[in-house]
User: Fold this.
Amino acid sequence: MKIYTEPKVWLVSTTKLAEELFDKAGEIDQYLPGFDKWLANAIAAEDKDGEIAVELGGRNCYHSWNNPSGRTNREYIQNIIMQQHYSVLEHGFAGFVIFANREITHEMVRHRHQSPSQESTRYVSYGEGEKQKEPTFVVPEMFLEDPNDKVTVERYLRAVMDMYNWAHENAAERYDKIQDRTMKRKLARQAARGALPHWLSATIMVTGNYRAWLEAMPKRLSYHADIGIRKVYLQILDKLEDEAPNIFRGLFERKTWEDGTTYAVLRGSND
Assistant:
């Protein structure tokens, strides 16, 4: 049995511009005059692929490839955000693999405009067996700081897993006559999984376009949000500030709440 206290986030997928965009830029320019020069300037400025895709979508709406105002990519996108023309932000995306407890992942899947793929307790068996996943938990640090509290938590988690194992074995016996072995295992796991606690760890991959992340962040970074999911979104914000700085960097202001935890608000807004 392993116990962690913090969720973890990894950036695993991002927007990548197609090679055809670069190979056919001259041809595209015949239909969109000024496109070739605009793209060359974006490449020279070392803008990120997702940021270029966003600006490309915006400029296509107005056929403004000549960029007479000389705006940088950041200036262009920040103007879009200020005017709340968020639809063009959907042309860039980022995907993350998140290690957390099921309490947090259950909240992650509530954001309809993101695409989640979550570890299934119907297909994964938890235990010490060769083909089982070792029971792993993400528990708030406050319950582990005191040695006596830690013992209480560990005792509870062992008792819960004992209950899960009992239910799993009991269900497996009841479904013993099922011929399909895969189906038999699924039936036993789905019958037993209700005994698993919200502190059980789960991995989830969540992919969203920039608009989906931007619209979820004020809710999940607020001090009103669950501390665990706030920690997840703070890590996501850190990574998006590096991956798409012209969109996310400087957009949120990090602060410290009364309990010592970090939260963030849109810069210039009220808490």
